Amino acid sequence: QVQLVESGGGSVQAGGSLRLSCAASGIIFSRKVVAWYRRAPGEQRELVATLDSGGSTSYPDSVKGRFTISRDNAKNTVFLQMNSLKPEDTGVYYCQVRTLIGTMYWGQGTQVTVSS
């Protein structure tokens, strides 16, 4: 049984930082594509960070330079470091892992609220 559990969300003021964690059980992050998504109120889900099996990362312009995705294979955990947070970063953040055959698994999400 695959489970992804996000943690580290909370409320911060603009300009602050948070580090989100996604701990996995039943699946190994190594050699898989992992990602973070977010969903702002009334908006569609948005991809904010991708980390492939080779270590390459990608980010949309909205978070580039402020967010960093990484993984600790020993702990089977994926992280999202978020710096210089803005109110528009507010939303529920989800981690995702995609298996080699294309199956996607999602965590339950963690709330991030950034006040102005």
How is the topology of this model organized?
Elements: E1 3-7, E2 10-13, E3 18-25, E4 33-39, E5 46-51, E6 57-58, E7 67-72, E8 77-82, E9 91-98, E10 104-106, E11 110-115
Parallel strand pairs: 2-11
Antiparallel strand pairs: 1-3, 3-8, 4-5, 4-9, 5-6, 7-8, 9-10, 9-11
Q: Explain this structure to me?
A:
- This protein has 116 residues and is an all-beta fold.
- It is 0% helix and 53% strand.
- It is built from no helices and 11 strands.
- It has strands at residues 3-7, 10-13, 18-25, 33-39, 46-51, 57-58, 67-72, 77-82, 91-98, 104-106, 110-115.
- Strands 2, 4, 5, 6, 9, 10 and 11 form a 7-stranded mixed β-sheet that branches. A 4-stranded antiparallel β-sheet has the order 1-3-8-7, with no helix packed on it.
- The model has no long low-confidence stretch (mean pLDDT 95).
Strand content: over 45%
* Average pLDDT, all residues: 95
Sheet of most strands: 7 strands, mixed
Give the topology string: H per helix, E per strand: EEEEEEEEEEE
Q: How many β strands by DSSP?
A: 11
Shape: globular
Rg: 13 Å
Class inferred from helices and paired strands: mainly beta
Distance between the termini: 40 Å
Number of helices: 0
Uncertain residue ranges: none
Share of helix among residues?
under 10%
Brief synopsis:
This protein has strands at residues 3-7, 10-13, 18-25, 33-39, 46-51, 57-58, 67-72, 77-82, 91-98, 104-106, 110-115. By secondary structure, the protein is mainly β. The termini are far apart.
